[in-house]
Amino acid sequence: MMKKLLVALLAVVMLLSMTACSGDNTIDVSKVKAKSLMGSADATIRWRFGTSTAPPPGHYVSGLVEFQRLVEEYTNGQMTIDIYPQSTIGGERDMIEMCGMGILDGLVCATGPVPNFIPNVAITDFPYIFGTAEEAYAMLDGEIGQFLLAQFDDLNIVGSGFWENGFRDTTNSKRPIVHPDDLKGLKIRTMENQVHMGTYNLLGATATPMAYGEVFTALNQKTIDGQENPPVIIATDKLYEAQTYLSITHLFYSPSILLYSKKSFNDLPTQELKDAVERAAKEAKDWERAYSQKSSAEGVEEMRNAGIEVNEVDIEEWRAAVQPMYENAGNYISADSVELLAKLQAELEKYRASH
Predict the structure, then answer these.
(1) How far is CA 124 from CA 121, 137, 308, 342, 343, in A?
(2) Centroid of chain to Cα 135
């Protein structure tokens, strides 16, 4: 409780200082990287959204900029959002807590740390659970995805929708990774996620959970050998500058989630404003997904052009190597989640048979 109170007090101080800066149209660039991330100065209702990743062309922030534009359009300029990138407000776990307490209006985050709050979300993190982005969209926009989003209500958070982080690939500074055995002995940064950690440990790596804001420094200082992320993040945040090899492992499909405070949403004065926010969120989700796919493809080419050795892998070989994660799923997720994982697999089989 004391930790949460300290986090809350720190967040209040930070947010008040940021609001003071934005009120006179001057932005502290050490905290907010682009003035354009502040919404319309004429809006009378301002929501503050945080995220861990970089300003445009970063896909989270680009999606939030589109969300900002749509909110302003659909509320006739009455409402806007101000965007704070690169963990300016805190790490993803901190921001989820702040959102639930009503201190932060919203955020976009990867699903990696979410099982610490909503354990069932871990079913989306199993290796190769989704073969294509289209499969992921069908499941996450369907019954199972909506069931997962509804559970955020217990945290006093609105689970608005699943955005896209993308298929996660592996970089390192030691050697090419082509076969699963090539991971043996490598220290790989993962998200704070039991399934991701378990998968890399199963394959012989030493999984090293670490807050995203610490990754580039750890790569530079050789504290870790490598990391795994979608190419859009690796390229946008220039993580490859401290790496030599990129392997297109696609080990996990990584959704992200747009979340906003239930208190902030309920405090909106009219139903029209609430409807406008929900409409904007749905359209921004679709826009961000398309942007993410395009940006990840471009990110691979950027790395290739920068001299990074790009290695393709045999996905079926890797899929076979991670099957123990499913056979021993109960070691990583609850019994209820194991049942939900089986339901997801069954729904995926139906989808694949009909497509």
Answers:
(1) 6, 11, 30, 12, 12
(2) 18
Q: pTM (2 decimals)? A: 0.85
Residues with Cβ within 8 Å of 170's Cβ and at least 6 positions away in sequence, in order, are: 177, 183, 188, 226, 227, 228, 246, 247, 249, 251
Which residues make beta-bridge pairs with 159? 259
Alpha-carbon dihedral sign for residues 326, 331, 332, 336: positive
Q: pLDDT of 175-226, one tens digit each? A: 999 999 999 999 999 988 899 999 999 999 999 999 888 999 999 999 999 9
- H/E element, 8: helix 2-23
Residue that is written with structure tokens 């709050």 in the block = 117
Rounded to 5 degrees, what angle do the CA atoms 321, 322, 324 make?
Answer: 105
Enter the CATH code of domain 2-354.
Answer: 3.40.190.170
Using alpha carbons, select from 139, 107, 108 the residue that is nearest to residue 123. 139
* In the chain, where the domains are located: 2-354
